[in-house]
Amino acid sequence: MFTRSPARQHAVRARLGTRDQFADYVRKEITRTTGEGRVRVLVCVKRVPAPGAKINVTPDGQSVDTANLGFTMSPHEECGVELAVQLVEQHGGESHVLTLGVAEADEQCRYAASIGVNKATLVAVDAMDWDPQRTAAALTEAIRAIEEADGAFDLIIMGNESADTGGYQVGIRVARALDRPIVQGLKGVELSDDGSSFVCRREIDAGYEVYELPLPAVVGVKEGITWPRYPTMRGRLASKKLEVSVVSSDAEPGGQSKVRLVRPEEKVSETVILGHGPDAAPKVVELLQELGLWPEEVSA
């Protein structure tokens, strides 16, 4: 039975304000403590170079030069981690992060744990040049193993695409292999009132498309679906104690193969100073005329 001391209820009610807000808090506490409506959520993430970093290619053109290069989690997937934590906070249950990567990808697992994810699994590989088919096969294998041990996930969250390769393939391949529905490019995911489906929203020019996916389902989310929280000191300390499950995969390469990485030429922009003070006015007028923003008859 769910109980709170009268003093505790009064303190919580004073903090929350209205009767409806207090009732909503009590419903969430009942869900969290009794397990009613609990959800199991898995979020897949990838270790990628930090956005904005200068990317250099090795002389043989086969990999990215990682010297002095910072790494992080793909922005779409960082929002996916926050979504997973929020769903568990709202409905109770358990969240799990899964990544395929080198040993250093343990850092991304622990970052997810620092903001509230409960469990983590790393599919360890020697290099990050796996093709989408092989990556999807390895993740599918790991998901099946986790579900066999702990139970099926109600929702699997993928980033819409990774920040480095931008292939848009892995999430769809995993969903197909697991025979589960998937919608990509989502900016909203909520559990339905009866807990039997997820209501998803995707932005379009005219507003939103709304999808209802029966459980279990897979979703591809985009940056902006949530705003990731900052890890607390308590969360960071707890993440250091997390036991990251490390597994291997014997997935075979797919039909795609890398030929060579080519770094695009840098675009150089030049700044021209037209003049100083009033002396620059004629040059400004000439420039506006060249751009078609200043009628000829005005200057005449």
Q: Would you kindly provide a written description of the structure presented here, covering whatever features stand out?
A:
- By secondary structure, the chain is α/β, with parallel strands linked by helices.
- It has 3 domains: 1-36, no CATH class; 37-247, HUPs (Rossmann fold, 3-Layer(aba) Sandwich), CATH 3.40.50.620; 270-300, no CATH class.
- The chain is 35% helix and 23% strand.
- The protein has 9 helices and 14 strands.
- It has helices at 6-16, 19-34, 75-91, 106-114, 132-150, 170-178, 233-241, 281-290, 296-299; strands at residues 39-45, 47-49, 56-57, 64-65, 71-73, 93-101, 119-124, 155-159, 182-186, 188-191, 197-204, 207-214, 217-221, 245-247.
- Strands 9-13-8-1-6-7-14 form a 7-stranded parallel β-sheet, with helices on both faces.
- Helix 4 (106-114) packs across helix 7 and helix 5 packs across helix 6.
- It starts with 5 loop residues before the first helix and ends with a helix.
- Mean pLDDT is 82; it is low at 30-36.
- The succession of helices and strands, N to C, reads HHEEEEEHEHEHEHEEEEEHEHH
* Record field, number of beta strands: 14
Averaged pLDDT, please? 82
Q: Can you name the CATH architecture of the largest domain?
A: 3-Layer(aba) Sandwich
Number of domains: 3
**Oligomeric assembly:** single chain
Main sheet summary = 7 strands, parallel
Which class of the largest domain in CATH terms?
Alpha Beta
Helix content: 25-40%
- Tally of separate helices: 9
Structural class: alpha/beta
Q: What are the low-pLDDT stretches, counting only 5+ consecutive residues below 50?
A: 30-36
